Amino acid sequence: MRNSKIAGVGHYVPEKVVTNKDLEQIMDTSDEWIRERTGIVERRYFTEGTDTTANMGANAARMALKNAGLEASDLDMIIFATLSPDYVFPGSGVLLQRELGLKEIPALDVRNQCSGFVYALSVGDQFIKTGMYNNVLVVGSEIHSSGLDFSTRGRNVSVIFGDGAGAVVLTPSESTDKGILSTHLHADGEFAEELATIDPGSKKKDRLTHQMIDEGTIFPYMNGNMVFKHAVTRFPEVIEEALNKNGYKASDIDMLIPHQANLRITSYIQQKMGLSPDKVMSNIHKYGNTTAASVPLALSEAVQEGRIKEGDLVCMAAFGSGFTWASALIRW
Ligand code: UT7
């Protein structure tokens, strides 16, 4: 069976920069607390009327297509990972398809939050492996800033999240020892409500009530300590799984692209895996946590900065709401 490879990467972030100091003006928080606990210095927020989840994804996709030397019309499929779609339905994949001027190729939305992009990459990889499609666009894009609780009540979540997008174009690899070597996907629904936006969901007779708004159940909730504990276990586990499957050791990794959840989590993984800091990509200080966009955004910047070269062993890993977690090992 053939492998797929990442033929091009791209990203897009909205222009508006929001610093920790800016957040100090609207809630009881401090630059010091945010930097110390998360490593975040600033994040981007979308501009209404200019940015949407779908068109930010399209901007990232255009860059990925250019880098792959392909036209949008060469694409066979779109896979769009997001937890913040433009509409409740339809998904953002069809909107991106329209934005790119494409007709009839399939568009699939993936809802796996922080591991959404790695899940989506795995889905695209399977379609190429089976020979069903050749050129698959995989996008992660999020607008969080329109759905956060900016009162002090929501500060543990709101200071973390930012808006952004990233994309890759998958094509068939020339050989089976290059490209995506394997992907590894996991979930544990036991903890579904520990990191979730509960309302407006379908299980209540009235989907949206004043009470939901007043009580803040329309905003994301996170049991930060619990998520943190699971994250620091699952990240190393799923990275090891990918390495073992392919007969590699942690020291063989040239670049680790972890989901950018918290600098403390990234540093923990780096130390636990015995990797030097230059082998672990981090851009959380600039963008915060952009959920499904975080891995492709970090990957795209790593490529742009010349930190990944042909032949490198690249590992992506993510953990988040669901809980879901995933990894991908790539020979670049
Ligand atoms: O991307 C999906 C996966 N997500 C993650 O992996 C995130 C995992 N969790 C975390 O990164 C951390 O748990 C947080 C950054 C969310 C929180 O850090 P923490 O060190 O776990 O803080 P905490 O929730 O235990 O809160 C410590 C204190 C509390 O005050 P008291 O009770 O000690 O007086 C909070 O009320 O910090 C307070 N606090 C804040 N203070 C200033 C919580 N948020 C803030 C804030 N500014 N934004």
TrEMBL record:
Could you state a single Gene Ontology molecular function term? Answer: 3-oxoacyl-[acyl-carrier-protein] synthase activity
Q: Report the function annotation for this chain.
A: Catalyzes the condensation reaction of fatty acid synthesis by the addition to an acyl acceptor of two carbons from malonyl-ACP. Catalyzes the first condensation reaction which initiates fatty acid synthesis and may therefore play a role in governing the total rate of fatty acid production. Possesses both acetoacetyl-ACP synthase and acetyl transacylase activities. Its substrate specificity determines the biosynthesis of branched-chain and/or straight-chain of fatty acids.
Keyword Flavoprotein present in the record's keywords: the answer is: no
Active-site residues, Swiss-Prot/TrEMBL: C114, H259, N289
Its protein name is Beta-ketoacyl-[acyl-carrier-protein] synthase III
Q: Give the Enzyme Commission number.
A: 2.3.1.180
Region ACP-binding: what ranges? 260-264
Where does it live in the cell?
A: Cytoplasm
Species this protein is from: Pontibacter burrus
Q: Which cellular component, as a GO term, is one annotated location? A: cytoplasm
